Amino acid sequence: MGSAPTTHHNIVVLESVFSPVPEFKLPNGLTHTLTSYPRTQPTEVAERIKNATILITTTIALPAEVLSENVSPHLQFIAVMAVGTDTINLDACRKRGIQVCNSVNANASSVSEHAIGLYFAARRKLIETHVALRANEWPRRGTLMNMLEDKTGTMPLTCEEEVMGLIGYGFIGKKIGHIARMLGMKVLVADRRGAKTIREGYTSFEEVLKQSSVVVLIIPRTPDSINLISTSELKVMRPQAVLVNVSRGGIVDEAALVQALRENWIAGAAVDVYATEPAGPETSPLATEDTKDLNLTLSPHSAWVSDTTMQNLQRMVGENVEGFCAGKLPAAHIVV
Q1: Alpha-carbon distance 283 to 316, whole Å?
Q2: Residue ranges of the D-isomer specific 2-hydroxyacid dehydrogenase NAD-binding domain (predicted)?
């Protein structure tokens, strides 16, 4: 005999600190309880989800062990209050029939604008000159214009001189490309690394690295994309190139990036995501004391943050939870 249909859902929120949870209006005949935790440590996950039928999460890792029937026997649905799902063992979800939805493109506008902001910060050395001015270096030196030179003595390129290479051309990649074109940049879109046939409108991965003066990463983290940009890729980039990563940590080899900046393989970098988060001097070579002299701009995985994103996340999580309960999940949001 099959199990009786669920008439009551235990909804557990593991990380409400990132966004308020909406009020849920479940179909007639269904009741629910809502348990919300501002933050959850990895060691707390198993205890907190043991009775959950619906789980709402953002960044906390959900490995296979906590998704097993022994730990979360009642779990039926995971609503991700984010776009990325790389922290969830999706294979474990498939094996158990746990459905997963994300908040697709909820942060597209914010991430796109942040990527362009990071580009300007790196190209114009906004952080370095800000710090120098506050340290009274302008009166002492008479001018700070030379701070904008790269290590070869070249002044910054303007947008009309830039060639932006996009590695990743989903919804957000297209938005970044649109903004870049409006600013006057030429835009190249990279095909998959190692592709034998290049799709129309795309350029080979290798040529994008060689030709671009700005390289922007906006791809998901998968086993194939780990350390996609490492020593060999950085060495073929243009000396005046700026690298921007708003995708996921781990896609850029952080130690190799520090070396590339220190040895002048590229002119600058701006990073919003890290292999280990939260990132700091103890977890990321990008944030150590000896990188302060590099043209390296760091933001704390905040590209997604905006009022519009918050509204989108609340709306989409509401749609996903209510859709699951009604048996009508939004097709565009389904991951598993």
Answers
A1: 33
A2: 117-303
| Annotation says 277 is catalytic | yes
43 phi and psi, to 5 degrees? -75, -10
Cβ atoms 109, 176 nearer than 8 A: no
Q: Can 128 be counted among the known catalytic residues? A: no
Do 102 and 194 sit in the same domain of this protein?
no
Determine, yes or no, domain membership for 197: yes
In the three-class reduction of DSSP (H, G, I as helix; E, B as strand; rest coil), residue 126 is classed as helix
Among residues 9, 248, 254, 322, the one annotated as catalytic is: 248
Per-chain mean pLDDT for the chain: 96
- Rounded to an integer, the average pLDDT of 218-228 is 95
On the CB side of 282, CA atoms within 13 Å amount to 1
Q: State yes or no: is 207 an active-site residue.
A: no
Q: Which residues are registered as beta bridge partners of 189?
A: 166
Across the beta sheet with 242-245, the strand order is: 186-189, 163-167, 214-217, 242-245, 268-271, 296-298
Asked if residue 2 is part of any domain, the answer here is no
Indicate which residue of 113, 137, 207, 277 is catalytic. 277
Q: What share of the chain is helix, strand, coil (3-state, %, to 5)?
A: 35, 15, 50
Q: Which of 192, 193, 262, 301 is catalytic?
A: 301
- pLDDT 10s digits, 74-104: 999 999 999 999 999 999 999 999 999 999 9
183 shares a domain with 284: yes
On whether both 137 and 220 belong to a single domain, the answer is yes
3-state SS assignment for residue 51: coil
What are the backbone angles phi and psi of residue 332, rounded to the nearest 5°? Answer: -70, -15
pLDDT digits 0-9 by tens, 177-215: 999 999 999 999 999 999 999 999 999 999 999 999 999
Sign of the Cα torsion 279, 282, 284, 285 reads: positive
Q: Which two tokens stand for residue 150?
A: 């790269």
CA 316 – CA 52 distance, rounded (Å): 20
Question: H or E segment at 178?
Answer: helix 171-182
**49 neighbors 66 (Cβ within 8 angstroms):** yes
Whether 214 and 180 share a structural domain = yes
